[in-house]
Amino acid sequence: MSDASDVAAVSVDQIYAAVEARDMDRAIRLAAQAHAAGSQAPLVLNLVAYQLELDDRIDEALEVLNQALKVSPGDPTIINSIGVCYSKLARPQNALAAFDDALLLNPDFPHAHNGRGLALQSLGDKDGAKLAQLRAAELDPQFPEPLGALAALAAEDKEWDAARDYAERALALEADQPAGAMALAAVELNAGDPTACETRLTKLIAAGRLTRLHLANALNLRGDAREALGRAPEAMADYAAANRELRPRQVDAQVGRELGLDTCNRLLAYFEKADPGPWKDPVPESQPTDREMGHVFLVGFARSGTTLLEQILASHADIVALEEKPAVDPPIIEFLMNDADIDRLAHLDEAGALHWRKLYWARVREFGVEPAGKVFVDKLPLHTIYLPVIAKLFPRAKILFARRDPRDVVISCFKHRFRANPLTVEFTDLERTAQVYDRFMRLAEIYRAKLPLQVHVHKHEDLVEDLDTQTQAICAFIGLPWDANMRNFVETANRRNIRTPSAGQVRRGLYREGLAAWRKYGDTIEVIKPILAPWAETYGYPKD
Length: 544
Known about the structure:
Layout: H1 3-20, H2 24-36, H3 42-54, H4 58-71, H5 76-88, H6 92-105, H7 110-122, H8 126-139, H9 144-156, H10 160-173, H11 178-190, H12 194-206, H13 212-228, H14 232-252, H15 260-273, H16 276-280, E1 294-299, H17 306-314, E2 319-323, H18 329-335, H19 339-346, H20 350-366, E3 375-379, H21 387-393, E4 398-403, H22 406-415, H23 430-450, E5 454-459, H24 460-465, H25 467-478, H26 489-495, H27 503-508, H28 529-538
Helix pairs in contact: 1-2, 2-3, 3-4, 3-5, 4-5, 5-6, 5-7, 6-7, 7-8, 7-9, 8-9, 9-10, 9-11, 10-11, 11-12, 11-13, 12-13, 13-14, 15-23, 17-26, 22-23
């Protein structure tokens, strides 16, 4: 054995001791020495990759981990580290697969349960995420990350007592544990102490040890605190900084997929010149595909009050609603991905439409909603651009179009976190968010001119001022008598599992603070004003 190998072997022993003592700084330092001496031990490579990951060199970390996997193909710690890298690359599906593979090899691996929980949370499965984190905490009570993750989940669900408990337990194990510290800051903000929230987050950010995702979340929450303190321009600076951290990873994760603004531009180019003839002829529904009393699509744009309106409608005795599930996505993918497929949609016959209708209603039921005997409301605010599919497949469906001041809409999209997809990733750039809004509204105007749509435009601000009058008009459009229980939408919202960023606001009831909120941001939003001014004027909103 060479001298270098002797040094490496000794270093590996020391590394194991450092890891067992939870002294990761020492473990990483020793691993770098061993690697420089020529060691290819899996633990050494794993820790070298970990340092690369901390330095935000994720692709390089994956290369080292794949090298380690060749040395030790069945090592769950290496596979777990690969999952962590995929999580940081905003690729939760890949991450989940890696964590599942690690758990097949070692079902009692707490770090893999923790990583799996974070991936599930990114994919919207909060129940699965909670179970995974509880298992991780059970397996290793001294492991702070699962407790921090549980605190974050509780804060997201507004379970403030649980959030505080989990956060304090995490922070007792590791001072400034990121998820725990941010959850406790959220508790402080909710309790009416934005100063404490801001102070905690400023300290956490200044320490300089946050991952890109944690830094983005901390900046975003500090923005909320500063807004609550009446310092909206500073808050906007934090929101912008948070999105600068998020956008590169989220865009990279969409590799090979058309981003939202590009999709809008492609659809605009097609439908601006499209012959309205084939689109004006609805595909007959002579063969019933379901037993619903009525069918409504609730569209518009994100952050336009659609979650509030959905909860109000779901409070009606004769209405059932589905919240942003991809029931209609298969025909969208089939027909709207290129011009040739859109041509096929324009000339779709009844037999072809019947297949997609049956699939749609089957998927609605798979998502837990029974539409028979009810008016079924499918809430899909960002499916405005996909109305050609809806018009062709469901000519009897009614379109409820939610509208809100465009400036408030765009700023709200920019401030809030969405599960990343090719469309919502655009909301990490303020100007592109405004451009996407502009294209959405242009497409909506073209669709109303060229498609046989039954549309009722609902104005969010009017609902806030006079709920009864507005809901009576909506009921008349849908074809139902008004139901006074629609006033009790907060009770409905508390019963239902709302998974959009609007959940907290809806459970507050009606309030006016969000109306014309764009004014308080001053010069920080100048870039969007010329893009949105024509729509604000068209829709009757004041210029200043």
